[in-house]
Each structure stands twice: as C-alpha cells, then as structure tokens.
Amino acid sequence: MNTQFKKGVLELIVLLSVNKKDMYGYELVSEVSKVVDVNEGTIYPLLKRLTNEKYFETYLEESKEGPPRKYYHLTILGRRYQKELLREWSTFCKQVNEFIKESEEYDEAAVY
C-alpha cells in the first residue's frame, strides 16, 4: 500500500479499533495490521500523541504473561474526533471515487 495513503488513514483506523474495545499497544498493532501493514514504531508515537491530545485515557491492568499492560480507552473527546474523521474520510472517498469514475468515462469516450 502506498505509504502516503497509509499515513492518511492510520489515525482513523486506530481510533475505530479502540472504539470497539480498550486495547493495549501490541494488541492494537496486531489489530491495525489486519488492515494496513504497520509496526510498533509507527503505532506507539501515534498513541502518545492521541493521549496527549486527550483523545485517549490510559490505565494499567495486570497481565498473566508479564508486567502490567497499558490499555488505551477512547474519551468522549476522542469519540467526537473519530466521528469527525470518519465523516471526512467518507466525503474524501466519495469525491475521489467520483473523480476516478469520471476519468474512466473520459478515457473510454476518448478511445472511441
């Protein structure tokens, strides 16, 4: 996937994932990787920024497999921001898809 496309949608995917359920960092990396190829070095700075902007709250929970895990929870402000991004993404996709469709129709008309 084009790196710029991925950068543009990564924040939205992270917000939507945590909206489904609270997640810890590595769990979130695994979830996001189902949609776009990412690594921990990409996700953790994003989580830190979104937490600093008050879109996430964090809490620690004991783990059976090691040290306590830091979970991310979407705040009310985060839910609003996620909905705003989702609206913007939907509008963006609709406009780009319409442009692509018009371009394809133009190409077909130009050939004949």
Automatic annotation (TrEMBL):
Pfam families: PadR (PF03551)
Location of the Transcription regulator PadR N-terminal domain: 14-82
Highest taxon, organism lineage: Bacteria
Protein name: PadR family transcriptional regulator
Taxonomic placement: Bacteria, Bacillati, Bacillota, Erysipelotrichia, Erysipelotrichales
